[in-house]
Amino acid sequence: MNFRIRLASFFVAALVVMQGLTAFLVYRVTRSELIGEGQRQLDVAARAFAGQLDELSNRVSASVQVLAFDFALRSAIAQRDHATVVSALRNHGMRVGAKRMLLVGVDGRVEADTDGKFAPGAAFPFTDLTTRALEAPASAITAWEGRAYWVVVVPVSAPDLVGFIAAAIPVDDRLLERLQRQSALPKRIELATRGRDGQWHIVAQGGGDADVDVTPALAALSPSLATRPAVIEVEGREYVAQAVPLSHSQQSAPVAAVLGYSVDAALQPYRSVGAAWAVLLGLGLLVGLMVAFFIARSVSRPVEALADAARRIADGDDSVVPPSHDRGDELGQLSGAFSHMVQALREREARIRHQAGHDLVTGLPNRMAAEAAIGRALEASPSARAALLMIGLARLPEIINTMGHVVSDRLMADAAARIAPLAGDGLVARATDDEFSVFLPAATRSEAVSIALRFVEALSEPYRESEFTLDLQPAIGIALSPKHGGEASTLLRRAEVALLGAMGTEEPVALYDPTTDPHRPERLSLMSDLRKVLEGPGVHGELSLMYQPKLHLPTGRIDGAEGLLRWRHPVAGPLAPDAFIALAEETGNIRRLTRWVLGAGIEQAGRWQAAGDDLRLSLNVSARDLDDVDLPRRVAGLLAAHGVSPSRIVLEITESAIMGKPETAITVLRRLAEQGIELAIDDFGVGQSSFAYLRRLPVRELKIDRTFIANLAHSREDRAIVRSIADLGHDLGYRVTAEGVEDAYAVELLRDMGCDYAQGYQVGRPLTADAFLSLVSSTAGVEA
Ligand code: C2E
Ligand code: CA
Ligand code: CA
């Protein structure tokens, strides 16, 4: 049941109850008032009725007395002229209204009867009256032959008493009606006699409802009939009734007049009032109902509107405007509060959405938001040209590592501020911690490149704070749509691939090149092949280690090797590590691969040691392996298993791999060093590492990158670099190895510069274990 119906029903119920109560009260008061009125009327009527009977009796007895003095009658009596007597009596009786006249002898015997019912000589029944008549005319009511009579007895003297004349006036319906007409008697008069059975029998009644007998109901109340007004119910109608005992002859059964006052009849005039009231109530109800309905509606409409709005807002309908009501009442307050709430909710949601889609540091959209926006733009015009630029700051990982996030955040915000004004209608976003993406709708390749160059220019200016200046080293990768992809995620990834390419070169802007993309589908299938190889039993068949000799320059002996991984792919043939190492790193397979390399390499070292060959083996470890806190334990386990002393194993880590590494990686390196394993920095010189940074690490060897060695013979600059690295390295206690040594002259130069080891094709290509061993023994023989 909704609010409106409930409210309306309440109004109506209240109205009905109030009206009903009022009606009931009015009825009760009126009724008791009427009953009181009835009692008063009955009281008066009872007295009036007695008075009327007295008057009647006086009138009759006066008249009968006149007759008693009538000479003719007296002489007829004296002469016992029966016929004359009867006719005189009849004539006279008719005049006074006595239906029956009797002549009673002094001895109490009936001498004449106008009705002729008494046999001559029969006894007159009401002797008390004849006795009383000796003094004065006597009268009383009698129950006689089933009727009521008012009997008046008058003596006849001539001059001595000769008899009595008895006049019997029937107190019947007609008489009662006449009396009623003469005075204000109640409508209902009943005359009742008490029979031998003790019951009251009605012998006459006057007017009123002929079918209603009040006497039996009154007698039921009290057998002797109440002489005070009593309320009784007769056939569903209410009466106030009262008995008036009439003085009766002692020889007669008691006779009483019962007066009844009909409350219902008295209420009759009020009935029409009641009907009018009922009509009014009906009208009132109708009006009340309508008013209640309208009031309820004016209350419930706004509430329903609010509820409806709330429901739709809950269903996620953003277009809903909360209904506002310019009213001063509680509903107005409620709708005001509701609107406020909705607005606050929407603001908060918008804030959360903004936060979810934006980078807090730069205020730019984040990658997710950018991807969605780019996706929408591409979907809107799939064939249109567009370019996605990925801007990276190569130095950022190092800056974060050395200066912390507070500085790097400020730097990124500054970089964002430089990029944004140049982007035009492009969408600038922060793609990763150290990358921005700029989506340029409708940009051609050359436009994209020229905008990219402008970004590079803007970012080439170092970032300055009062105490320091930081070089950002920007690089930009570009992917073009639709050429390089029609989806946002593809474009982002490919721009990132291009960026990685740009970071490794002198050229700061690079276009995506599918041939170098590590995510190329064929490379991915290569990965699943590698995973199968690592999991399957055929590991040793497809994977192998080659050993590239290392020449100890001061002695000219080969006393070590670097283990280099080879994969003989069943379809693609022999694969160099460059073809799959980076991919294994990206796809999370590198740890397993390293595990295999360590196992194979340490096993080989164990064989050498067992054979008494004093050889050191260097193995390559990737940056991702340093996140593996289990690595030191595993290496220790392998050393123990193959009986290898730790000093025979060197682990090579590229310079870039340890830059910007978290503490856990450094802890792993320290653990390994504590076990006696030596660490070498691979590809030294091309990265950004400083000697100062390396001092924190337990490094034992530096391997100068082969780019510095390749032109050693021709480049003075390279010679200077290699010499200073060697000198500084020695000063700091490092062993120094030169990689990529391809000619004999370089070997001489390196020896002169004081390098410790030379590694390269000049010394020896990566060889199988057997080939390597024979090379070792042959050179050992030569030197010796
Ligand atoms: P790297 O550690 O710098 O290894 C030396 C690379 O230079 C080897 O290439 C080697 O064949 C090549 N090389 C040796 N002497 C010369 C020379 O005189 N001139 C020229 N131009 N090149 C020379 P490779 O075997 O293709 O390995 C490439 C890279 O793959 C390695 O660079 C290393 O970083 C990585 N790698 C190799 N094996 C493993 C491994 O088992 N685990 C891991 N994580 N990385 C490995
Ligand atoms: Ca290496
Ligand atoms: Ca190297």
Automatic annotation (TrEMBL):
InterPro entries: Cyclic-di-GMP_PDE-like (IPR050706), dCache_3 (IPR029150), EAL_dom (IPR001633), EAL_sf (IPR035919), GGDEF_dom (IPR000160), HAMP_dom (IPR003660), Nucleotide_cyclase (IPR029787), Rev_trsase/Diguanyl_cyclase (IPR043128)
Residue intervals of the HAMP domain: 297-350
Transmembrane segments: 275-296
UniProt-recorded name of the protein: Phosphodiesterase transmembrane protein
Keywords annotated in UniProt: Membrane, Transmembrane, Transmembrane helix
Pfam families the record matches: dCache_3, EAL, GGDEF, HAMP
One GO CC annotation: membrane
SMART domains noted in UniProt: EAL (SM00052), GGDEF (SM00267), HAMP (SM00304)
Domain EAL: 523-780
SUPFAM superfamilies for this protein: EAL domain-like (SSF141868), HAMP domain-like (SSF158472), Nucleotide cyclase (SSF55073)
One of the GO biological process terms: signal transduction
Residues covered by the GGDEF domain: 384-514
Domain of life per record: Bacteria
Any GO MF annotation of the entry: cyclic-guanylate-specific phosphodiesterase activity
